[in-house]
Design goal:
By secondary structure, the chain is an alpha+beta fold. The strands form three sheets. Strands 1, 2, 3, 4, 7, 8, 9, 10 and 13 form a nine-stranded mixed β-sheet that branches. A two-stranded antiparallel sheet has the order 5-6. A hairpin with a 2-residue loop joins strand 5 and strand 6. The relative contact order is 0.07.
Length: 574
């Protein structure tokens, strides 16, 4: 029939027309081509994905983080191998798990270079990480790939590989060579050089920002301007040494109560933290005492009343009702210092300040006004007060052994009180109490401030700890000059903040000299946080808040001014 009859049912999907007659040669099974093409693979995939269960590809031995150079045998393509290749290409789900696997090479059959390259180019992009894992090629009797063939494979794999894996792709594996021929060293270098240019891209990001370098340079220049000139330092030291030696000799020769005084030089000048000019010096004249009873005055843990147990002590004359009177002892000490200073007309004794434990002397050297605080103190050779048990947390910074060495040293008490002197606790007046001092330990810590013994030595790496503290003190002094309402804030607040910061950032690498601006910024953040919270605990006595007597609004105002200077690049230093 030619068109009006019932159409015949198609016998196979390959039938061209439903009405036409089926030719006998079209019903024959289609033979597979020797080399699989792209169109054939797609058509084969449509027919086999739903009907046939894909065979799992044979496992290959993988090496971690080393790209492989596969070797193949003689270029022979057979029909069974082509069918196997088509099945592997028609199962994308399996390829995602193990996309490119090393073929098992043998002496008779192997894939051609064109077939293996087609497999690589069809690999999905999300499987490139696994595809770069090397495979261990087994020895075979055929010829090894030539340099040109390997270079073609490398260029096809390279574009799909992400930048993260380019560094791993540079490494080459020691592939097992075939029995007949192998690459020459010259050819191997040619293939590896093609992969090298893409590797340095990520390394160019690691650099110091230009802004930080500029701030470092600016801060270093500021520190250079804060250095004390040698001639000024030498002239001031001569004057100070002369007057201190004279006062010490006078007390030893002309008094009974103070004839055992010992010099203890503390303060920023002797800690190598003095800036700008050598205009302030602190000298502690300590009197050792034995067999004393120390009782805390109040709940803070910084003030104590002292009771002498030895009747033969010359200091017994200052003891009333079992309490060594700090006010009476300081008054006689002041009188003796005045007598000694009369022979030095260039020195003047300032008016006594309320609660101040020192006798302050003033003179002028090369147009620089120099003040000397001669501090009376008693040295207690016993264990530190219990309030210090939770303090001086330098275990992670300087070590537990160093901490024990410091705590074996005696501590000092100076005649100082806060508030009104007539306030009484347990029958003891505030003006007769003593405040504990650890200035000798502070000096030792600052002189040996590194977690490594070689820190800031000639053979060691320099840190910026002291530089950061100098900058903080300088900033605080300049702000106090501009605003007198900040006068109650002193350099000891800056030093205490610094000691806490060193215990939180314990390693020398946290304070590298090249990171001055970053370290200074962190120290300022610490100080601002203390001011805003209104809490700055004593480094040795955590129960004492050094900001408890300061107005909270003034603390926040100072924190705001420091933050402004930091955000604007410290215009106050210019």
């Amino acid at each position: 029939m030619t068109g009006r009859g019932r159409p015949r049912k198609a016998k196979s999907p390959d039938t061209k027309c439903a009405t036409g007659k089926t030719r006998p040669e079209e019903l024959k099974p289609v033979s597979l081509p020797k080399s699989p093409g792209k169109g054939f693979a797609e058509e084969k995939q449509k027919r086999t994905t739903k009907e046939q269960k894909p065979k799992a590809p044979k496992k290959a031995v993988h090496f971690e983080e080393k790209p492989c150079v596969q070797s193949t045998c003689k270029d022979k393509t057979t029909k069974p191998f082509t069918e196997k290749t088509n099945k592997q290409q028609s199962t994308p789900t399996e390829i995602t798990k193990a996309p490119v696997q090393g073929t098992k090479a043998c002496a008779n059959r192997a894939e051609t270079t064109e077939q293996s390259s087609e497999k690589i180019t069809k690999t999905p992009k999300d499987t490139t990480k696994d595809s770069l894992k090397p495979t261990k090629a087994k020895k075979c009797g055929g010829k090894a790939k030539s340099a040109e063939e390997n270079s073609e494979e490398v260029t096809k794999v390279q574009p799909d590989a992400p930048k993260e894996t380019t560094t791993a792709s540079i490494k080459t594996t020691k592939a097992k060579t075939c029995a007949r021929k192998a690459k020459s060293p010259g050819k191997i270098t040619e293939t590896t050089t093609e992969m090298l240019p893409e590797t340095p891209k990520d390394t160019t990001k690691v650099c110091v920002p230009q802004e930080r370098c500029e701030v470092n340079s600016f801060l270093n220049k500021t520190l250079e301007n804060l250095k004390i000139k040698r001639d000024k330092k030498s002239d001031a030291a001569k004057v100070i040494n002369t007057i201190v030696k004279t006062i010490s000799m006078h007390l030893k020769q002309n008094t009974q109560c103070f004839n055992k005084v010992e010099e203890l030089r503390t303060g920023s000048y002797y800690e190598h933290l003095k800036i700008s000019n050598p205009d302030e010096f602190d000298i502690m004249l300590a009197i050792p005492v034995e067999r004393v009873k120390v009782n805390p005055f109040g709940d803070v843990g910084a003030y104590y009343s002292v009771e002498l147990k030895r009747d033969k002590s010359p200091l017994h004359k200052f003891q009333e009702t079992n309490t060594l009177s700090a006010s009476k002892m300081l008054e006689e000490f002041r009188d003796e210092v005045k007598k000694c200073v009369k022979q030095f007309p260039e020195w003047k004794v300032t008016t006594k300040k309320k609660g101040c434990p020192a006798v302050t002397l003033i003179t002028t050297v090369q147009s620089i006004t120099i003040s000397l605080d001669v501090v009376l103190s008693i040295m207690v050779k016993s264990s530190w007060p219990p309030f210090t048990n939770e303090g001086i947390k330098i275990d992670g910074w300087l070590g537990a052994k160093v901490k024990q060495e410091y705590k074996r040293k005696p501590y000092y008490l100076v005649p100082k009180y806060e508030g009104r002197g007539n306030v009484e606790h347990d029958g003891v007046l505030a003006k007769d109490t003593w405040r504990v001092s650890f200035s000798h330990v502070e000096k030792a810590i600052l002189k040996n401030h590194g977690s490594e013994k070689t820190c800031c030595e000639k053979a060691g790496e320099r840190c910026c700890r002291k530089e950061c503290l100098k900058l903080l003190k300088h900033l605080l002094n300049l702000l106090k000059e501009k605003d007198s309402s900040f006068d109650k804030f002193c350099s000891y607040h800056a030093k205490t903040t610094f000691l806490h910061a060193c215990c939180s950032r314990t390693k020398d690498s946290d304070w590298r000299g090249s990171n001055l601006s970053h370290c200074f910024q962190l120290l300022l953040n610490d100080f601002i946080a203390h001011l805003e919270a209104g809490v700055l605990n004593n480094f040795f006595i955590p129960t004492q808040n050094l900001l408890s007597g300061h107005n909270q609004s003034k603390c926040k105002s100072l924190a705001h001014r420091i933050r402004e200077e930091c955000e604007n690049g410290f215009p106050i230093f210019k």
